[in-house]
Amino acid sequence: MRPYTRLAGMAVAGIVATSTAPASADAVSEFYSGRSFEIHVGFAAGGGYDTYARLLSRYIGDHIPGKPTVIVKNRTGSATIKLSNILYNKGPMDGSVMGMVARGIPTHEMLGGKGAKFDPTKFHWVGSMNNEVSACMIHKRSGVANFANTLEKQVVVGGQGASSDADQFANFITNLMGAKFKLITGYPGTAVTVLALDRGEVDGICGWSWTSVKQMRSKDLKEGTIYPILQMALKKHPELPAVPLITDIARNDEQRKQMELIFSRQTIGRPFLLPPKVSKDKVAAIRTAFAATMKDPRFLAAAEKTNLEINWVSGEEVQELVQSVLTTPKPIVAATRQNLFPKGPVQTAKLTYIDASGKIEKIQRGGRRIILSVDGKKVRVGISGSDTKVMIDGKKAKRSAFKEGMTCTVSYLGPGTTAQSADCKS
After folding, report:
1. What element of type H or E holds 206?
2. Considering its fold, how many domains does the chain have in total?
3. Rounded to the nearest 5 degrees, what angle is found at the Cα of 168, between the Cα atoms of 315 and 177?
4. What is the mean pLDDT of residues 331-355?
5. Residues 34-64: pLDDT tens digits?
6. Are 337 and 171 in contact (CB under 8 A)?
7. pLDDT on residue 48
8. β-strands 271-274, 97-100 pairing
9. For the purposes of burial, counting CB atoms within 10 Å of the CB of 83, is it exposed (0-12), middle (13-18) or buried (19 or more)?
10. What distances in angstroms separate CA 179 from CA 27, 44, 275, 423, one per listed residue?
11. Residue 288 shares a structural domain with residue 394
C-alpha cells in the first residue's frame, strides 16, 4: 500500500531530488527551530486518545527537523467534529498544528453525520498509533453476562457525541442486531464516560478501545468488575479469544457487509492529520517524524510501561484507506446509515461539576496538571490553557503561574479530568 517509484525517469528524478531536497529540508528545519509544534486533541484530557497523544508528544519533537517544543492542547466538541472543522477551514495551515481526531471522522458525513464542514480526503493524514479493537464493556451490576443477554435486558450505555464510536456502535448494534441498549450521550471524552460508569450513571460503554480499557481500568478488569461481551473490529484481539467478534454474529451477508464498512475505521485507530493547505515538504517531514517515533526504542519502552499498544499505520496507508472507504457502494452505505443513529429520543448526559479545595502538592508538565491535597487525599486535576479559567489572588492568570503550597478551589468533573476553573490564593 505504500507509494512506490516507477523505474522510468529515475535518473532525472534523482538529479532533481539531489538539487532541491537539501534546500527544502533546510527550510523546514528553519521553520520549526525555536518554535512550538502543537498537537490538538479533539477529546478531553485523561482518555485514550489524549493518553496516546501525550506519549507521542514526548518523543516526536526529536524527529522533526529543527526539534520544536511539542505542546498538547485539548479542543473538545461534538466528538472531534468541531476540531476537524477548525483545522480544515482555519488551520493554521503553516504546519505548526497537527490534530488528533476520532477514527470515525472520515466516514462521518457519508454515514449521515451532521455538522461536518470538511472533505476528509483533503486532509493530510500523518498516521495512526494503533490498529484498534474496541470492546463492548459491561459493569457486573448490570446483570448482563454475555451479548445474548442484551437482546432481552436493557443496558444503559454512555457515549460522547453523534460521531463517537461509543454512540455509533451502540446504535448500530441496537438497530441491526436488536440489542436493548439505552444511550446517554454528551460526555466530553472517554475519561468522563468512565467516571459515569464508576458512579452508576451508565452500566456499559460499547466502543471503548481495548488498549484504553487496560490502561485506564486494569484493576477493575482483574477483579471482574467490568468485562467485555463483544469485540468491534474486523479481526479479534489475541488477548480476547473467547469474546465474540461482531462479524461472527452476523445473521447474513448484508449484515456482514455493513459491519465491514463500520469497523474498517478500527484500522485507522488513533489518527493524526494536518490541515489541507500545509505544504508538501512539511507534510513529508511530519510523516517521517511520526514513523521514526513509532520505531524509537525510548518511545516503545514508554508505551510498554504504560500498557499502551502500538501497532502503527503510516500516513500513506491511512490516506489510501480513507480514499478507498469513501467509494463503498451506495446501497450498502444507505443501509448502514440507517442503523448508525437512534430511532427515537436520546438522553443527554447531565454533567455535574465538583468543587474541591486544597493545597497544591505538586505541579506537573508546566501546570498542565496539578495535584491537590484535599481532606488528606491526593486529587489530580488537568488544567487546560484554553478551557480552564485560572484565577490567582483575584486576577486572571496563566497555568504557568501555579506554585506549590497555593490554596486552590477547582471545579471539575472527577479525578483525572480537566478543571473548568481554578481559583487560587498564594
Report:
1. strand 204-209
2. 2
3. 120
4. 91
5. 999 999 999 888 788 999 999 999 999 999 9
6. no
7. 85
8. antiparallel
9. buried
10. 56, 29, 39, 45
11. no
Spatial neighbors of 346 by CB under 8 A, at least 6 apart, are 183, 184, 185
Domain extent for 416 = 354-425
Res 344: pLDDT: 86
CB 273 within 8 A of CB 132: no
Q: Take residue 9 and report the three cell numbers written for it.
A: 525517469
Query: Across residues 195-221, what is the average pLDDT?
Result: 94
- Output the pTM of the full model: 0.70
Which of 274, 306, 337 terminates a domain? The answer is 337
Does residue 126 lie in a domain region? yes
- Characterize the bridge pairing of strands 181-185 and 155-158: parallel
Average pLDDT along the chain: 90
- Whole-number Cα distances in Å, 280 to 11, 79, 101, 291, 418: 22, 28, 21, 16, 35
Q: Tell me the pLDDT tens digit for each residue of 117-127.
A: 999 999 999 99
Q: Is 99 within a domain?
A: yes
Residue type, 266: Q
Q: Which of 284, 305, 337 is the last residue of a domain?
A: 337
Name, in order, each residue with C-beta under 8 angstroms of 2's C-beta and a sequence gap of 6 or more: 314, 316, 317
**Bridge partner list, 209:** 134
For 45, other C-beta atoms within 10 Å of its C-beta total 30
H or E stretch covering 253? helix 253-263
Can you say how many angstroms the Cα of residue 131 is from the centroid of all Cα atoms in its chain?
13
* C-alpha cell at position 393: 489572588
Could you tell me the CATH number of the domain that includes residue 123? Answer: 3.40.190.150
> Is residue 195 in some structural domain?
no
